[in-house]
Amino acid sequence: MATTRDLITSPAELKPSTAWSETIWAYTSEEQLADHTTKARLCVATLLPFKDRQPDWDGFNKSVRWMQQCAAHYGVEIVFVLNADTGYIFDLSNDLYAEVLRRFRVEFPGQRFIAGVTARGAENDSAFKAERYWPLLDIAQSHDNCEVIIMTARLLNALASEPRRDAYFQIAEHCTHPAIAHALEPSFVPWATPFDPWLFHQIAMHPKYVGGKVSTLDEPHFHYWAAMCKDQKLPFSPHSGDDYGIAAAIKMGLPLLIGAGVSACPLICTARDMWLLDSVTDKKFKTGTGRFDTRVYKLFEAFQSFEDLVFRLDDRMSASPYKHSTAHVLHQLGLIESPEAHPDCKDLRGADEAQRMTEALRRPRRIAEKLGIPFFQTV
């Protein structure tokens, strides 16, 4: 006869060696986490477009305004994530990094943003050094009305749980702005290891870390985070970085922090509103029944099938060329002049990408027309 093993239900029982599979939070269903009353924010990992090997600042501004329009129409709080992976942070000089933030603040003085921050100059290091994060932190924190996302790095990720906790706390000592901790799973880079439950709880309880993002494609770590945070009422906001499972965060009433927020912005903003019950004050377009709009399920399907093509895996089993696909989508929507990637970016799609994105856009454009969703035809 099969026996049922006891699962950990309290953070006090966690150890650095504890696996998620040993906890109750690994077995919490999406249905248990459903929330039809919270319209959480959409954090868009913003693309930096290029034309003739130079930043296309007009296209950058135009695409940001377009996303602002989408969010305002559906009453969704939008935050722009600048200089993260979608903004080519690993190909940016410090000067261009600073210029992106400076130009954004001048053009959009009241708009909140999150600045990507990673280690600089660590290529020849053999051990983790928190001060490698200072150069970009100092640039980002010279601005107001912003947060910083502490992006993981190989040497930070290589640490065991306790020294890794200490490293995040060291970085936090240099943070004057609210910080978001970033975790990766191995489907992005082979050296990545997501936060174990002990480490996650340690970071979630640190006052400087107001939230976290887990970039996940094949593992349900966002569900684990969401379950622990809801069960324990943690003062920490888990942000989904799952471009293959966008609907989950909407169903849970939790924030998204994704590159797909660019190419599918009108659709995601619509879904945020449709998922809410009519009784929610923030709901812009009510059904008149007191319920939520069940047509959202088909919208979930449409934007996910679209983003599965934008984020499709290449021959290396990497989704990294999604940035090039996103540029093609924005180009076809008339928001940027060229589908070029950063001139130093090696993660490129093939010569047929324009046609592939034309085909990918067919279904979401059709359902956008059926549902009366604006801003998704050519601008």
Structure explained in plain terms:
The chain is α/β, with parallel strands linked by helices. The protein has a domain at 39-292: TIM Barrel. It is 37% helix and 11% strand. It has 14 helices and ten strands. The strands form two sheets. Strands 9-8-7-6-5-4-1-10 form an eight-stranded parallel β-sheet. Strands 2-3 form a two-stranded antiparallel ribbon. Strand 8, helix 7 (221-232) and strand 9 (237-240) form a beta-alpha-beta unit. The N and C termini lie far apart (63 Å). The mean pLDDT is 96.
Stated plainly, the CATH topology of one domain is called TIM Barrel
Low-pLDDT ranges? none
Report helical residue fraction.
Answer: 25-40%
The number of distinct β-strands equals 10
How does the SSE layout of this entry go?
Blueprint: E1 42-45, E2 50-51, E3 54-55, H1 57-73, E4 78-82, H2 94-107, E5 113-117, H3 134-140, E6 146-150, H4 154-157, H5 161-173, E7 179-184, H6 197-204, E8 209-215, H7 221-232, E9 237-240, H8 246-252, E10 256-258, H9 260-263, H10 265-274, H11 296-310, H12 322-332, H13 353-360, H14 362-371
Helix pairs in contact: 1-10, 2-3, 5-6, 10-11, 11-14, 12-13
Supply database-style keywords.
379 residues
Outline of this structure?
The chain has 379 residues and is an alpha/beta fold.
